Input
Amino acid sequence: MGFDLTATTVIFFAASVIVAGAVSGIFISVSNNLDKSLSQRLDKIREQVDTEFMVINDHEDIPEENGHYLFYLKNIGDNKLITTNETFELLMDGNIVAKTSYYFSVDYIQPGEVATIYVDTGVISSGDHNLMVVGSTGIKKDFIFKI
Output
């Protein structure tokens, strides 16, 4: 009778160790996934915080040159900005500006530098307008102006 009780106890002990190992393995896996997810999210937030820009034109006097209106985009963040039609979208009065209707003076700007955005004059009629510049990280800036 003593052997039966010992064998049962050993079986229950072994089963509980196996279950505890499986549960701890699941917890380790979940915590690793959570850690990786949080790290990626924090990196994205850090990139967004370090990416900042603004349009620095005079609202009443938009320069024109060779069939294009000129808008000046200043990098006021801590990261280099890639300034291409692929990394920035323009919306004029809520409508997407075709990528063929605008271009940048340079391919990138360092913090503190300014790039010129050349927008085809055919996109903008006279009157009051809202230019929205949307960066690759989802940061957007509105610029209200008059032609």
User: Anything to note?
Assistant: The first helix runs from residue 2 to 50. The chain has two domains: 1-50, 53-146. The chain has a mean pLDDT of 89. The domain at 53-146 is CATH 2.60.40 (Immunoglobulin-like).
